[in-house]
Structures are given as C-alpha cells and as structure tokens.
Amino acid sequence: MSRIAFSTELVKERNAVRLCVPTELAATLGTARLLPALLTINGHSIQATLHKMGGTYMTAVNKAVQQQVGATAGDTVSVTIQLDTEEQGVDLPEDLGAALADAGAQGAFDRLTLFRQREMVKAVTSAKKPETRARRIGQAVDSLTRD
User: Fold this and answer.
1) What is the span of the domain harbouring residue 47?
2) Distance between CA 11 and CA 8 in Å, rounded?
3) Which residues contact 101 (CB under 8 A, 6 or more apart)?
4) What pLDDT digit, counting tens, does each position of 8-47 carry?
C-alpha cells in the first residue's frame, strides 16, 4: 500500500472528534489493531496512530490539530494516509531514563504505546522549573510501578 486519499467528515463521538477511514479503504490498510501513519489533512502533515474499530480505522483529532487544519466536527476534510514504516521510538531524557532504570520501570515504559511514551516525555520536558520536572519524573515512575 503506497497511499490512499479520500474526503471525509470529522465526527464527534462522546467527547472526541474523530477522523474515520471509509470502510472500503480501510481494508487496504490491513488488519493490525494499531497502525502508525503519516496523515495529510487539508494539506497539513500529521503523525498519528490509526486504531482498528468496528471494521474500519479511526484516529482522534485533538483541538490543536483541529486548529492547525482549520476543521472540527461536522466539517469535511481532504485526507491522505501513508503508513509510517520507519522505526518508532522516543528520545528519552537522561534523568527520566535513569529514574526508570533505578525503579526497574524501563520495561513498563517500553510496553507503553508510542503516544503514551511521547506524552510522558513531553510532561517531563515541558516543565519550566527543576522541581516541577523532578515531580513529574516521580509521577511517571509511580504510574509505571503501581500494582
């Protein structure tokens, strides 16, 4: 599969705005539960994970992406999808990596989805004060070591 292109309406389900791949096109993407993909929505490139749900694939479109692409629930968008076949990973800050290793939580971190890994790293690296960063590292470790 090289790439697929289509137009679709963004839909609101529960509290999320979602982009759903038309069922007839979803079959060309395969059967994996999660698919890393490079999306172009209204001409803006987005890295996302497509989730298999109800015979099709979908992804949430958060507020920042909605603003970037100039569309929200009920709007029709032009979409191009190309599967992301590059090795997935996240740059782990040295202090977070050391804390995970000390707590024996590196394996738990590695089992998180790429999205969750990125969000955890972002929480740490976005801290403006050293004490906030340290607290967030502690929270990350705690969340991975709870029974």
Assistant:
1) 4-83
2) 9
3) none
4) 999 998 889 999 999 999 888 888 888 889 999 999 999 8
Question: Which three-class secondary structure state does DSSP give residue 71?
Answer: coil
**Sign of the CA dihedral 36, 37, 41, 45?**
positive
The candidate with the shortest Cα–Cα distance to 49, out of 23, 81, 79, is 81
CA–CA gap between residue 1 and residue 101 (Å, rounded):
39
**Rounded to two decimals, what is the model's pTM?**
0.62
DSSP state of 88: P
**2: Cα within 13 Å, side-chain hemisphere:** 0
- Give the count of alpha carbons within 13 A of 110, CB side only: 7
Q: What angle do CA 46, 114, 11 make, to 5 degrees?
A: 45
In a domain, 89, yes or no: no
Q: Which residues contact 146 (CB under 8 A, 6 or more apart)?
A: none
Does residue 77 share a domain with residue 20? Answer: yes
